[in-house]
Amino acid sequence: MFEQMSQNAPLEGIRVVDQTQALAGPYCTMVLGDLGADVIKIERPGVGDNSRQWAPPYIGDQGCYYLAINRNKRGIALDIGAGAGREFLHKLVKDADVFLSNLMTSASLQRYGIDYETLRAMNPGLVYVSISGYGRTGPRAGQPGYDLVSQAESGTFALTGEVDGTPMRFPTPIADMTCGLFTVIGILAALRSRERSGVGQFIDMSLQEGQMTWLANLAGEYFAEGVDPPRRGNRHPQVVPYEAVQASDGDWFILGVASDNVWRAFCRHVARDELAADPRFITNAERIANYAALLPILRKIIRARPCDQWLDELRAAGVPCGRINSVAEALGDPHVIERGMIIELEHPALGIVKSLATPVHLSDSPLVYRRHPPRLGEHSDEVAAELGYSPAALAELRAAGILA
User: What is the spatial distance between Cα 328 and Cα 212, in angstroms, rounded to a whole number?
Assistant: First the structure.
């Protein structure tokens, strides 16, 4: 249901002007909105955010993709290509704390009068965020960038999939979402810095760089050995056994033996203490070296019992494990529901719209989910009135197609 703003929401009083579309920027600003910021989303009249067209599926006439990443925002439809539209945007920015854009080139930002230098002159305290495929510097600055391209170029695409299969994309837009989350971190850091200095700064975000952070330990492996890590499927490169296994009933679950102590606990539970004492398997390093010998033994053990029995017994024995859920099973998990991970908001045209919560639990300043994803131009009049536009001036903007 529609909720009022908490009086101590973490970002209450912070205004964010969001001139981004698709996913990385909108995902970032949704999180900022969940934290209490007043997010004003700018879209093109008659067209809107690209993600509105990324459908089916729909709920009513709204694409589910758009609905999933645009709650807690006010939406205006504004043509910033027109002089009066740029003037409207400049009025918004003069009193804003954060401005985001994902226009591809510096030249396009300058053409619309929303480049950093122009907006900083109007508002020295502004935190200005640029989101692009490759950043604003370097040989590829200005080239178009997309989530799937970033997955490919970052090295993660080549590492995903079965050992002998083809390279595989991650099933969700992980590069966009990662860039969006790092952008939240950058904005919070810049706002904290502004408290000390009184001035804002420029934040240069890249889809490619955000996606490369997922290499993490694999990059460390390469730096240490100078050898390209191979595709390993479900096998972990540094921990054994730590992978998907199949029970007697055909169901799959994850067995997470992340230390030698847990390995010994597992062996005790399955009455195979000799495995824990076997020189080939006694330490994690030995289990990695002798993985080919251990795997068929492990598979035979696991295939002796059904999945649910394994999960109950292994958890009781202190061995980490978890069922490989379908999406429906994950979203229906009573623990997930009890923790408030499913958000329901009343939409004026669609009824109840569900989305995933931002998984941040603050004891004294909890997140508040108060606004449904806006319809195109839903808050144009409201925002224009706040900026001091008279009814006559607003009518002129509408007649000219600058505001919708």
Answer: 30
